[in-house]
Design a protein that fits this description.
Length: 872
């Protein structure tokens, strides 16, 4: 019998390997495992992960190897022990075992007479129903030293524990079988794509290195003009469906479906979604597989399903299990609603199709809703049934008016066309132009902008479909929205919405709302530097007769606008700004009052008053709650005032500290940093940081005028008179339009006088006289700091914290030489201590955050120093 089997084995052909495509890459861990050939290697990953393709690709490449590879492809249905061992016997010998024989016994006999090292590759081992086979396989390995086994399973089972206990073994799970960026790039190259490392890394992270999904992305994707991959991410959804429908995924399917509904989740929310048992047993397995990763959260430990996989699992659940999909989202909505976290609660109620509760939340938190991420709010509201929206005035206005417009773009068009001017409103109140007006606007180039404003001013919405109750609430809702925009420091948009509120109130005959909207518009215009327009709007409001009590905003604006105008025109003199009664409904606008007081202290020049004001402003910042209403406008106004007062007191380090962590792209922050650079003598830095200000003057005259003036002064000091003349002309034009004089006092007086002499009749008449009539606000700018290359090397050495003796050894000079150079550095920087020198050097750009790293060679330091010396 044995001889017969051996003869048949000698003449038989082994079964074919599975067919694989050329675009196959093997993970480093799998390659090393196959090369090391342990006695038993177990590959444990879900269906469709690419185990079979990877191993088959490896085996196909071993044609000249001494080892014999025997592929055992088990059928994809429940397989008992006898059938399993029969399949192994057939793969080894090429024939089925004779009837009535024990296939395992025959296998022992065959292997006992086989001298060639043999590796059994057991594919679809998951379908072996009796785990006693796992033990029998372990015993077989112990009996034959030349035998190796590669087992591919989808779930944990006994063979995994047997492998872990074996002396020569490897157990590879998803993280070890996943491809890294190099593997993705290799597959892309073989598929004919060009791919950067960044794109390869993004794809690997997005799909957890899942080889089969990556292969699908390459197969279904397209190429751009450069031959790079444009992925079709829908392929992930198709693969997720295949995996989730696998019977072996039964206990994982509801856990993944539930967790995918949450963008992020902590342990408490996770247990709420999937239950305590699943959290302790199933969740760790998914986490270890790399499908879930940990993320930073303000509330502590948090997790998320990787975004691409999360979107795919959600799509599969929404289409094929809609009842549970809504159930999971309802759990999440209730969770956030009980914690008064409105935005995610609304989003989850919408996904749960609980329209009534979603509508209630939108109405309660509608201002926060519309001032948050606009695209997300628009996406959510578009899902509401039309009958739900039309039953709520706020929902209807939010959907069809507020979120249906690009407010910032419309504000820009409105300022550019003159639509914000009081005179414009008087001439074109009915928004219909006469022929002469049309011709005049065409000649001036304003007609096209005017037309865009009119077309986009809200009349594109079909008002006839709105109920009277909606129309009556429209002015009040626009007022609330504009005030919210003002407190979040989007002042141009706030001005535009106040203008719209005024128009709606006029159409509805609501005089009180007209007065409040006009006052708000006047305040915004004054804050933006449109003093003349603000004054006219305030006069217009005063001419409106109303029987009601003036609104808080109206009372506040009537004082603040006059004070802002007087201060900016230098008409206030030594008069302290008038006190404004605190308005509880508008917390945050007290920042304007603080700004006015700071301006008074600045121009008065009293050191004691300036220090008291500085301390008051710093306390205000220290107690500021970052995300409350009014925090942005309060923080910006306070920091702006602190910087000006610090420059007046020559306390530059104190000014830089208050700007730490501030977004450098904000216009007011650019103004602050540019002023600091100007008075520190860093004229090149002034021009560099302010070069992109085109178009700013259309709406924000206040900041644009300051930036143009500082650029003119910096260019004059650099003897770039052509630039200085252009910038002075731009500043003078803005000053003439707005009536602002004060900012001419916030540049070095010598520069102002020099520019006026170099370019006579450019600065508005009386501006130079008004400025020079008073005391100088700021000291003369510092001379540019010039350190030698050797001094920069010493500065870099002391930045490491090294003692002077050690710095001397590194630079191959005496300690006395280093001490002398340190004294010169302190003198040039105007400081008396090491920490102050380092802070000053960083603020001047002489040191960077990378400087001061221990152990850098003097040659490297010298190269840095040479570059910075040339830059300065």
């Amino acid at each position: 019998m044995i001889r017969k089997v051996q003869e048949e084995a000698a003449t038989s052909q082994p079964p074919r390997l599975p067919r694989v495509t050329s675009t196959i890459a093997i993970s480093r861990a799998l390659r090393e495992t196959m090369e090391n050939a342990p006695a038993i290697a177990v590959l444990c990953a879900p269906r469709g992960f690419g185990k079979t393709s990877a191993v088959a690709s490896w085996v196909r490449g071993q044609t000249g190897a001494h080892t014999r590879y025997v592929w055992v492809g088990l059928p994809m249905h429940a397989t008992g022990p006898e059938q399993f061992w029969s399949e192994v016997h057939r793969a080894l010998t090429g024939t089925s075992p004779p009837a009535g024989t024990d296939p395992l016994t025959l296998i022992y006999e065959v292997l006992g007479r086989t001298l060639q090292p043999t590796t059994l590759v057991l594919d679809n081992f998951t379908y072996v129903s009796d785990e006693s086979v796992d033990d029998e396989l372990g015993e077989l390995l112990n009996q034959f030293e030349r035998l190796r086994v590669v087992v591919m399973v989808r779930m944990e089972r006994a063979i995994v524990a047997i492998a872990n206990a074996h002396a020569e073994s490897a157990v590879l799970r998803m993280p070890q079988l996943a491809l890294d960026a190099r593997g993705v790039a290799t597959m892309a190259t073989e598929a004919g794509y060009t791919m950067t490392r960044t794109q390869a890394r993004e794809i690997a992270e997005a799909v957890v290195g899942w080889p089969a999904v990556i292969r699908a992305l390459l197969r279904d994707g397209s190429r751009d003009a450069d031959g790079a991959l444009v992925p079709d991410w829908h392929g992930i959804e198709r693969y997720c469906r295949i995996v989730l429908e696998d019977p072996d995924m039964q206990r994982f399917r509801p856990v993944l479906a539930a967790l995918s509904c949450a963008q992020t989740f902590g342990p408490d929310l996770g247990r709420k979604l999937i239950g305590q048992d699943n959290w302790q047993t199933v969740f760790p397995v998914i986490h270890q597989a790399g499908i879930i990763d940990q993320v930073q959260s303000d509330s502590g430990q948090a997790y998320r399903i990787r975004p691409r996989l999360r979107a795919a699992v959600q799509a599969v659940t929404r289409r094929h299990d809609p009842v549970n999909y809504r159930h999971y989202h309802r759990i999440l909505a209730d969770w956030y609603d009980r914690r008064n976290i409105a935005e995610p609660a609304i989003a989850h109620f919408v996904e749960a199709e609980d329209w009534a509760r979603a509508a209630v939340l939108v109405e309660d938190y509608w201002l926060e809703f519309v001032t948050g991420p606009t695209d997300e709010a628009r996406r959510i509201l578009r899902k509401f049934p039309d009958e739900i929206v039309r039953a709520s005035a706020k929902l209807l206005v939010v959907r069809d008016y507020i979120l249906n417009v690009d407010t910032r773009q419309r504000a820009w068009h409105a300022f550019r066309s003159g639509h914000m001017e009081a005179d414009f409103a008087a001439r074109y109140e009915n928004q219909r132009l006469t022929l002469s007006q049309t011709l005049q606007m065409r000649v001036s180039g304003e007609y096209e902008t005017f037309r865009q404003v009119i077309e986009q001013s809200g009349h594109g919405v079909e008002r006839s479909a709105w109920a009277d109750s909606v129309l009556e609430q429209m002015p009040e809702m626009l007022l609330q929205w504009s005030i919210t925009l003002l407190l979040t420091r989007d002042v141009p948009s706030a001005a535009y919405v106040f203008r719209q509120a005024y128009q709606w109130a006029r159409e509805r005959g609501m005089t009180g709302a007209k007065r409040e909207a006009g006052s708000g518009l006047a305040l915004c215009l004054a804050m933006l530097g449109h003093l003349n327009s603000a004054e006219k709007w305030l006069d217009r409001v005063a001419g409106l007769v109303s029987r009601g009590v003036p609104a808080d905003l109206e009372r506040l604006a009537s004082v603040l606008v006059r004070e802002l105008i007087a201060g900016d025109r230098l008409e206030a003199g030594d008069t302290e700004p008038a006190a404004v009664e605190h308005v509880p409904a508008l917390p945050g606008l007290e920042a304007i009052q603080q700004y006015l007081h700071a301006g008074y202290a600045l121009h008065r020049g009293d050191a004691r008053v300036q220090e008291e004001t500085l301390s008051m402003l710093e306390r205000s910042l220290a107690t500021l709650t970052p995300h409350r209403h009014g925090a942005r406008i309060t923080g910006a106004a306070a920091r702006n005032a602190i910087v000006d007062l610090c420059i007046a007191r020559s306390q530059f380090e104190r000014a830089y500290r208050v700007l730490e962590g501030v977004d450098a792209e904000q216009v007011w922050a650019i103004v602050c940093r540019a002023r600091l650079a100007l008075f520190e003598g860093r004229n090149d830095a002034v021009l560099t940081m302010t070069e992109h200000i085109d178009g700013l003057s259309v709406a924000d005259i206040r900041h644009s005028l300051q930036l143009h003036l500082m650029r003119a002064c910096a260019a004059r000091r650099l003897h770039r008179m052509d630039v200085a003349g252009d910038e002075l002309q731009a500043a003078a034009s803005l000053a003439e339009i707005s009536g602002i004089v004060r900012f001419f006092a916030l540049v070095p007086r010598a520069d102002l006088v020099g520019l006026d002499q170099e370019f006579p009749h450019v600065i508005p008449p009386g501006a130079v006289q008004a400025v020079t009539a008073g005391a100088e606000v700021f000291p003369e700018p510092r001379e540019p700091v010039r350190l030698s290359e050797r001094e920069l090397e010493v500065l870099r050495q002391i930045a490491t914290g090294a003692p002077l003796s050690q710095a001397a050894r590194r630079l191959f000079v005496s300690e006395n030489t280093v001490k002398s150079q340190v004294r010169n550095i302190y003198r040039k920087l105007g400081v008396h201590a090491r920490e102050d020198a380092l802070q000053r050097a960083k603020s001047l750009g002489l040191l960077t955050d990378d400087d001061g790293r221990p152990g850098e060679s003097p040659g490297t330091a010298g190269a840095h120093a040479h570059r910075r010396t040339q830059a300065i």
